[in-house]
Structures are given as structure tokens and as C-alpha cells.
Amino acid sequence: MTVRPATAADVTAIADLELANLGDDAWSEGLVREGVTGNLPTISYLVAEVDAPGGRAVVGHATASVVADIAELQRIAVDPAHRRTGLASLLLDAVIGAAREGGADRLLLEVREDNAGALAFYAARGFVEVDRRRRYYRDGATAVVMRRSLGRGCGASDHGR
């Protein structure tokens, strides 16, 4: 398993992961292409790939933005056949590293309040709930806003370093 920056060759795989994981809330292939090719300057995409017959296969991706001292994890998606293999953790670690390098002192994200697995995943990695956004998703579901300190400012503590 490796995590690397996404390239234009990864756009279709990322868009397919979006649709498979996020359904109606998936980003279009066009929007993914804009982010991957650098037309959205604060956005970065990472992909996780594994060995597969015929070469390497993209089986996960993460999308994040860094603006000044705030980073936002916008997406982590892993192919269902590759879940619980550590890919989401590798992607999250890579996002945290990139956010720190970009000067962010905190990482924010939103997760559906009915996604118990994701809430537990992020809580186990130092994220805490800071707010809720009612009717955030297309189907009217509420988003839980979570934050993790990245080690300086914004309520930093030893566990965030």
C-alpha cells in the first residue's frame, strides 16, 4: 500500500470511488479533475494504491484544503473491498502531514451523524466534535463538525503533536 499525490491519470478512479462511497453526495468527475489538475489552488488530492493484476490500482483517496492556519479534510473514501486494511489511516496521516507542512494548526472535517464507524474512526485519532450542521447533506442529514489540533495554537496539547 502506498499513498501519493494524485495525477490526472487518477481522475476517473477517484470519481468512481466518489460515486461508490458517497452516492448522491459524490463530486462529479469534472470537479475532481479541476482539483487534481490544480485549478482549485487550495485543494489537494492523495490516492492510496495497491498491487493488482496488471499493475497498481487506486483503491482510496483523500481530498483536503489548507488555507492559512486551517486545514479541512473534505473526503476520505476507500473501496469497500479494501476497508479495514489501514488505508484510511494512511490517507489521514498523509493529510495531517500535508496540513502541518502547509502551516495549519488544526484540521476540520464533517461527517454524517448517522455514520457511527466514521465518527469512531476520527474520535480514535484525536478528533473532537465542535459543532453540528443541520440539513447539511442532500438527503437532509446532519453533519458533525470535528476538529483535531495539529500541535501548535488552537488548543494544542501533547497528544496533537
TrEMBL record:
InterPro entries: Acyl_CoA_acyltransferase, Bact_Acetyltransf, GNAT_dom. Keywords: Acyltransferase, Transferase. Pfam families: Acetyltransf_1. Gene3D superfamilies: 3.40.630.30. This is GNAT family N-acetyltransferase. Residues 1-151 form the N-acetyltransferase domain. SUPFAM superfamilies: Acyl-CoA N-acyltransferases (Nat). It comes from the Bacteria.
